[in-house]
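Note to self: user wants both folds in one dump. Writing first protein now.
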Amino acid sequence: MAEPVLLNFEKHGKLLLSECRDFSQFKSQHLVPIVFQEFYPLATEFPLVFVRTSSSGDFVPTALMGLS
């Protein structure tokens, strides 16, 4: 399990974020799990649906990316 640490300029000063340009890993996914903060921005572009998981029976919010 990950252990959060405070950011320290000496240890983390050279870390950068890189932009992902290859989305081929998502080519076959038509439902993408989302979090509450994403509801409003995604709802303007994609249908949002709740899917029940087979393992726990809980509902998971997802964005519908397409139909195949």
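First done. Writing the second protein, which came from a different request thread.
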Amino acid sequence: MVSLWCLIVTELYLFHSIEGQANGDVRLVDTHQTRGGGGGGRLEIFINNEWGTVCKDQFGIREGNVVCNQLGYISAVNVGIVKRLGYEYGNESQSIHLDDVQCTHGMRHILSCNYISGSGDCDHFGDVAVICNTTGYYSVGEYDGMVRLRGGSIQSEGLVEVYCNGEWGTVCDDQFGPNEADTVCRQLGYTSSLYGRINGLIGSESQSIWFDDVVCPLESSCLNDCKTCPTTEYHDCTHKEDVTIRCTYDTSVQLYGDNKTCRNIGVGSGGLSGGIIAGIVIAVSLLLCCCLATLFVILLTISVMRRRREREETKENEEHTKSREETPLEETIIKSTEVLTPHGARTLPTHNYDVPIFKEEEGPVYETIPNEGGGANYYYRDTVLYDKQDTPGVIYIQPPTVTTPSVSEKPFPAMPPLKKE
């Protein structure tokens, strides 16, 4: 019984709220009409169950654009003090709800902007008026997944329509609940929704039903976070199941700098949009090409360096081989100017010595050749023998065992021991 009573109270509150205004609703008031015609007038905003005015301090064309977008227009044409634009001041009994309003580009709701609550230092002589461009906000700049509310008695309520494939269509209520309604309202710049059916609001029979079985993540702020536009209709719904909602704005939650837009967002249960997929494919292709080009350059550099090293090694081997072929071992020994002795390397005198003559049938032959010191060097084959006068620069090398040559009548003199330096 208690549960039934709570349900009845909830339903009464919900549908009573549907009939009223929502926090953050705006209107432009002139002498005879509000939103119905000219798109201009004294700016009023609904906060805490009453309409109040907005002070002109800091309020410029950017803030006017936010108001006009909220009303469904494309932009603001002019803003200023009400009298200067030809409108009437607010009533003395009216509250001044906002002062020093400052918005940034892309904001979708005036309560998302920075502001001071209350009148501040203003009176009604400072009430601001706004004139909007009535071309229509929803006639330009549409994108897949864009949403709007249509047909309501106020701007914060209506039939939910979504833009897909170049036309506006509706959303089926299968699995659509408060969380999904909050998502739509956040996309429109509000903080939350009052979810409930508004009688008499349905799409036309010629309209497509673009979304069905919509399920959104918690705290999502774009309908494209939940589902993306299909290429063709795919549902089991009729327009009697079209979703209608009413949005509201919680003034205790001031969303400073909340200028997120849902254009080009395509991640959801429906997968990635075609534009995002194409972008990803292009980016991955470019990255792959860069990686392959870098790898090719590295491999080419390694190959060139290896070939160069092989050519240098081949050239060195050829030069070494050629040098050995051009200089026989015997010639190297005979022409060398240095001889390794037990006392170290010594330099031979630079004389043009005749090469000793050897005759096998006569045995070794030696001859005496004078040197620079006046003495004589005794040669046995190519070995220098003892020099009697110890001439500097002459190498003393122990010769092999020598027999008396047949050409001499005297025996070969005894070889004294090597002289140490």
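Dump finished. Worth passing along: The radius of gyration is 54 Å.
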